[in-house]
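Entry 14. Ran structure prediction on the chain below.
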Amino acid sequence: MRRTTILTLSAIAFTLSVQAQNNRHITADQAVSVAIENNSHIKMSDMDRRIANADFHQTDAVFLPQVTLGYTALTTNNPLNAFGFLLQQESVTAMDFDPAKLNHPGATQNYGTQAEAKLPLLNLDMIYARKGARAQEEMYQYKAERTKEYIAFEVQKTYTGLQMAYQARDILRESLEDVKQIHRSVTNFYDQGLVQKSDVLNAQVQVNTIESALAKAESNIHNASNGLRLLMGLEISDEAYTTDSLVQKKKIYPETTLSLFRPDILALQKAVDATDMMVKSSRMAFLPRINAFASYNLNDSQAFKFRNDSYLAGINLSWEIFSGNQNRSKMKSAQYQKNRMQEELNLHIKKEQLELDKARRDLNDSQTEINKQQINVEQAEEALRILADRHNEGLANTTDLLMAQAQFSQQKLLLSQAIMSYNVIEAYFRFLTKIEN
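Output, structure tokens:
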């Protein structure tokens, strides 16, 4: 029996050793680095930035010419068009002025090649629209930057949760060993007739309870590992990451006000600038537009012959005096959008300042909680030691000892949770203030 027990324990130890070797260790910085490269939200925000850049370059048409090349084959017996074909082909002769031929020209063909060019000279509304598109592109650049910062915070928070899962497992393992030792001692006392059967059963119940909690702790490790993989843009796996130990990241932060140069605030400011440019663009729509145009033509009576060239060039000034209130309403709409974006910016700044103040207070509260929990752990440990000594001497009952042991484990878990909470708040505080590690 003893040999079987030894072999079983050896097999369990070997299995745990293999699992520990298979689990890949990862640091918080490594996890953040992988997430910055692979996270789906970051990729989508980068695509939004690229889309905004492409939209901006559509406004290059404000300055660049538009060139069109075409080839047309026509046939007609219309007298006017038929004579026009002859003129375009530069092939009019005296015979073509015969009234009978003028009135009944028969089927006449024309094969024309045409190159057209349009060049904007002065379109103030489009110039301001281009500036608005540039501001919008910059807005998406800031949004992409802030998305990276947010994902980095989420990775740090999830990593801290994984650290807590390992810490809880280790505490439960220690607690399980202590309770098993108590169970063995109570069993020996029972065999000697010193305690009742209920004491043995209570100890066994405590062992079963901790074993159940330990199984859940193992599941929490795998759940947190997969949550971390999701943020890092990796495939879900049964392999659990191992982490650094959970320790308090205690730093001293000076009194910091909300930075107006934070990417999310700059993004909203650029959104305000973009709507302001659209207001100016809609105002400029009331002014005249000046554009140049030109065309070059080749006409022939035979297909794929390119003779008899001609050109046409000019400058066009157009002024839309009244558009059925379309431009006026468009300008009002743009002004309202600008006012709304400005209000959204002001509200966002106020809310983020409140978040920053709250995070600073939460950080202080978490430190207070850690200090109290450290004292509680020390006191619970001392109470457990005293009761264990008294129990060994037969002066304390088993129930009190089990309760003391459970209290000691609970206080250690609460201390670890307080440290985890502090680290998460500290990471959030840095996220709000853009303070680097």
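Residues 373 and 414 are 7 Å apart (CA to CA). Will compare against last week's run tomorrow.
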